[in-house]
């Protein structure tokens, strides 16, 4: 238990002769704590303003979190995810392993340049040769659909677009087959839609189709890009060319097949889930349709695979020289229910492919719209990044390409939790040193379904995990009413009293002390923004009533926490009040503490809050929080507080190595030293360090740059920074310790592809730094940049002491393993006075309760 006592000692003979002073400690219980983190929001806004970034920089769909309805296990990482899939028996060179690239040209050369896609590999690196890459993933056939004279909107179906892709395939290093699907229509055709091209008549349709086929082949041969296969129509059963008489339809197909065959190109037919396949095969035979492949387009359901196996048997029994395959199919990679992901997609492809193959049939399938970047069913996402599900084609052949992908994009295991850390003992760090973490967002995260895990990987209470790793203090911010008139959260953890109580009750189970940080606002209070609570705005010009508001809210809140069993060790009145508080901000001077009229009013508010603390929780320390280590500001502020008799014990600072500069540690030492000379205790109430420079939830991170700081990015850097910081704080006897700001504020759903879901959770539960509902209370300039919303998810996920899935990093162990002594210390504040009781200077001395010490007083001139 940390304790401190204030001794006033007059200057006299004892001091003149520099005699030793023997002091016996009284058992006065006082403990310490620390504070929040809100300057983050102001700095975030500055970041957006200077970089032009928006929190909506990842326009992709949410995906890949929960398992599918088929109970496909989602692995921690994609690297070895498909090794369980064995080579399919009977698969070979003749098996069609196809990818439909019809949309490819539209994606790489769109009319609108903003829509242009750059195709990339699984690790988001641009591809020099996409066809070589997809071949490495097991694809051996590229399919292109072609319409006769498509409209401008359907230009992706034009022969010119297909020829561009065929030329690209030709120029590629890939040895890959091509399949051209001639639709014999001006638009896409389906089972019940086989519309003739504009200008073709039913009477002359077959002749027109023959001439068209001849013309297309001639153009392709002239460019040396003739395909390996031409498929006659799409989803044609008995209505080719919209011919009503079935026999005429079959005869027409036969005549076109003859033209294709004469050009040494193989022929495929594409049907639409036929119920009478045996009869159709017989009719094709009677009409003398010469074809090599018989395909069926599918819209899969639970019975699809068994249906395909039955079709395969019918083909084997009735057309033994024809290869049966699936000519078109696709599966969800993303869906609104979050039951689809790359693993369910790959599993579905593997099982269907298996159903097409046996010792009699080489089989295969063509994946529809495979290259349609952004489609929820394709093999490429909105960013053009390849999806690892495509590699299932290689695994089905017994090959194992590398399926590693960017873990921060997809929510895979980042590897952070496996990184081991070396932790050095911190001199003067004892069992009574504040080893605190701010976890204000915890309640909101729990409501959104976030889970945490212990050091053994088992799901556990966050507070238990913290306690097991040596954390003895938590910090909780308190907002008055963080909701709009509809009861919708402003976000940022929705930190009203109720949310804080949930955290404090859980902390009490593990004997963890609590610092309550009052912002006296309905949302973030920081150096740039100090807004009055909505309910207090009517009293803003009535100083007496405002003081009463502060006193009553503080006291009523503390009473609720006491009743809940919270161990309140410290109370922070105001948050980062360097430039003002509760709507009163500096204007004419360097800081508000140089403006006597304003600072006097603010000091009355601080005193009102402090009075409530003394009356309700007399054993708790009172802290005032500034956001910097500026000694000039410290002097101005402490002079103002002394002038107005503000009652407080601790001056707390925010200190972030990536913002504080190379002299941070020396500035921390000097700050503690100066605060001690004014007779006060010192703590760093906010700090953190980067575990990564990557975004894990789709919202731009507040800090990605180390700005020249000496620490490595990662868990080891976190431990090193904390070690150095504690050494600097504890180099002075008035140093209490520090609080790591929001060390458990992880994404609701890991992976920045899940930006949309995380934004929705921010609006519903308040899990992000701000919700859309804050508009109208919080400044619009903070919530929008260039009219684009910057509210949303978590801007702190790369600074936590947990990975983005809730597993503790080894750096968290610092709070347990850096302790060098189990001794419990207290502080004695010694006021050195002249004979008229005027304080000449202060000294803060660290002592052990119940034990005597010998302390040598300094010379006083």
Automatic annotation (TrEMBL):
Keywords in alphabetical order: Glycosidase, Hydrolase
Hydrolase found in the keyword field: yes
One Gene Ontology MF term: glucosidase activity
SUPFAM superfamilies: (Trans)glycosidases
GO biological process: pectin catabolic process
Catalytically driven reaction(s): The enzyme specifically hydrolyzes (1->4)-beta-D-galactosidic linkages in type I arabinogalactans
Superkingdom, natural source: Bacteria
Documented EC number(s): 3.2.1.89
Family: Belongs to the glycosyl hydrolase 53 family.
Name used for this protein in its record: Arabinogalactan endo-beta-1,4-galactanase
């Amino acid at each position: 238990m940390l304790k401190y006592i204030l001794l006033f000692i007059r200057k006299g003979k004892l001091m003149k002769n520099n005699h030793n002073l023997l002091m016996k400690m009284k058992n006065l219980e006082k403990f310490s704590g620390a504070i929040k983190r809100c300057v983050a929001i102001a700095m975030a806004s500055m970041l957006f303003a200077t970089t032009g970034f928006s929190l909506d920089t990842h326009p992709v769909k949410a995906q890949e979190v929960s398992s599918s309805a088929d109970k496909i296990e989602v692995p921690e990482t994609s690297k070895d995810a498909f090794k369980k899939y064995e080579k399919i028996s009977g698969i070979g060179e003749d098996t069609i392993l196809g990818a439909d690239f019809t949309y490819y040209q539209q994606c790489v050369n769109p009319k609108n340049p903003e829509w242009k896609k750059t195709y990339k590999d699984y690790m988001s690196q641009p591809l020099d040769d996409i066809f070589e890459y997809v071949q490495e993933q097991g694809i051996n056939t590229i399919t292109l659909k072609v319409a006769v004279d498509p409209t401008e909107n359907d230009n992706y179906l034009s022969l010119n677009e297909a020829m561009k892709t065929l030329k690209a395939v030709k120029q590629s290093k890939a040895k890959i087959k091509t399949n051209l699907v001639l639709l014999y229509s001006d638009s896409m055709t389906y089972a019940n839609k086989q519309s003739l091209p504009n200008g073709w008549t039913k009477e002359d349709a077959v002749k027109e189709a023959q001439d068209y086929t001849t013309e297309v082949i001639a153009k392709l041969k002239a460019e040396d890009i003739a395909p390996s296969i031409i498929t006659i129509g799409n989803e044609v059963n008995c209505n080719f060319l919209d011919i009503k008489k079935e026999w005429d339809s079959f005869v027409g197909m036969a005549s076109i097949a003859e033209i294709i065959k004469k050009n040494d190109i193989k022929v495929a037919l594409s049907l639409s889930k036929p119920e009478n396949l045996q009869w159709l095969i017989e009719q094709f035979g009677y009409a003398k349709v010469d074809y090599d492949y018989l395909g069926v387009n599918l819209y899969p359901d639970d019975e699809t695979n068994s249906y395909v196996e039955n079709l395969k048997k019918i083909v084997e029994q009735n057309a033994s020289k024809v290869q049966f395959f699936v000519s078109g199919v696709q599966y969800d990679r993303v869906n609104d229910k979050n039951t689809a992901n790359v693993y369910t997609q790959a599993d579905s492809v593997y099982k269907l492919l298996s159903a097409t193959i046996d010792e009699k049939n080489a089989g295969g399938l063509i994946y529809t719209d495979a290259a349609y970047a952004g489609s929820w069913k394709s093999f490429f996402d909105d960013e053009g990044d390849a999806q690892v599900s495509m590699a299932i084609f290689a695994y089905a052949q017994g090959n194992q390409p590398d399926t590693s992908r960017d873990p921060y994009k997809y929510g895979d295991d980042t590897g952070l939790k496996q990184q081991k850390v070396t932790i050095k003992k911190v001199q003067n760090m004892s069992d009574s040193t504040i080893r605190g973490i701010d976890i204000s967002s915890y309640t909101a995260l729990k409501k959104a379904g976030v889970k945490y895990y212990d050091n053994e990987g088992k799901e556990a209470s966050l507070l238990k995990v913290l306690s097991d790793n040596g954390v003895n203090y938590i910090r909780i911010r308190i907002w008055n009413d963080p909701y709009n008139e509809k009861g919708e959260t402003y976000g940022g953890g929705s930190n009203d009293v109720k949310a804080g109580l949930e955290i404090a009750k859980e902390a009490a189970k593990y004997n963890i002390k609590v610092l309550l940080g009052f912002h006296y606002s309905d949302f973030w209070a920081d150096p740039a923004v100090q807004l009055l609570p909505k309910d207090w705005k009517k009293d803003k010009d009535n100083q007496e009533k405002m003081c009463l508001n502060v006193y009553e809210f503080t006291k009523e809140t503390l009473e609720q926490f006491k009743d809940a069993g919270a161990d309140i060790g410290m109370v922070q009145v105001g948050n980062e009040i360097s430039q003002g508080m509760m709507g009163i901000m500096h204007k004419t001077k360097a800081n508000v503490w140089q403006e006597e009229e304003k600072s006097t009013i603010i000091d009355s508010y601080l005193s009102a809050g402090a009075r409530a603390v003394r009356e309700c929780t007399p054993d708790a320390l009172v802290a005032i929080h500034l956001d910097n280590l500026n000694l000039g500001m410290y002097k101005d502020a402490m002079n103002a507080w002394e002038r107005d008799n503000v009652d407080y014990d601790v001056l707390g600072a925010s200190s972030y190595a990536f913002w504080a500069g190379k002299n941070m540690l020396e500035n921390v030492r000097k700050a503690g030293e100066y605060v001690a000379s004014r007779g006060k205790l010192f703590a760093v109430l906010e700090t953190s360090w980067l575990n990564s420079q990557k975004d894990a939830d789709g919202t731009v991170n507040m800090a990605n740059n180390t700005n020249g700081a000496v620490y490595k990015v990662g868990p080891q850097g976190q431990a090193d920074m904390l070690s150095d910081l504690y050494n600097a704080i504890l180099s002075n006897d008035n140093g209490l310790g520090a609080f790591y700001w929001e060390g458990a504020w992880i994404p609701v759903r890991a992976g920045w592809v899940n930006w949309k879901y995380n934004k929705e959770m921010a609006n519903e539960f308040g899990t992000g730094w701000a919700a859309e509902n804050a508009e109208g209370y919080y400044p619009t300039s903070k919530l929008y940049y260039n009219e684009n919303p910057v509210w949303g998810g978590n801007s702190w996920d790369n600074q936590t002491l947990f990975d983005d899935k809730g597993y503790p990093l080894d750096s968290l162990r610092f709070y347990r393993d850096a302790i060098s002594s189990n001794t419990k210390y207290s502080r004695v504040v010694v006021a050195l006075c002249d004979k008229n009781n005027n304080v000449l200077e202060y000294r803060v001395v660290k002592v052990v309760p119940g034990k005597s010490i010998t302390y040598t007083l300094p010379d006083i001139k």
